[in-house]
Amino acid sequence: MDNFNNYKYLEENFGIPAKTAEMIAAAERELDFSRAERIAEYNQFKVLKAFSDNKVSDLHFAHTTGY
């Protein structure tokens, strides 16, 4: 088993209840996601958390003319 625990990360950093995380885990076991997909998902959570912590939003990626 790898060292990535996406459900614990979701609970600790986004407040998603353990019961919900367990339901997600059960569904994912049935779908048999590959290790690479789990790593990518974990890294995506970290980026979203960093954006949230630093108050980065979609407005920061919008085109502006400077006027």
Structure description:
It contains three helices and no strands. The protein has 67 residues and is mainly alpha-helical. α1 runs antiparallel to α2 and α1 (6-14) runs parallel beside α3. The mean pLDDT is 83.
Radius of gyration of CA atoms, rounded to a whole number: 16 Å
The unreliable regions are: none
Helix tally equals 3
Mean pLDDT: 83
How does the helix and strand content classify structurally?
A: mainly alpha
Describe the largest sheet. Answer: none
| SSE topology string | HHH
Strand content: under 5%
Distance between the termini: 53 Å
User: Globular, elongated, flat, extended or rod-shaped: what is the shape?
Assistant: elongated
Overall number of strands: 0
Helix content: 55-70%
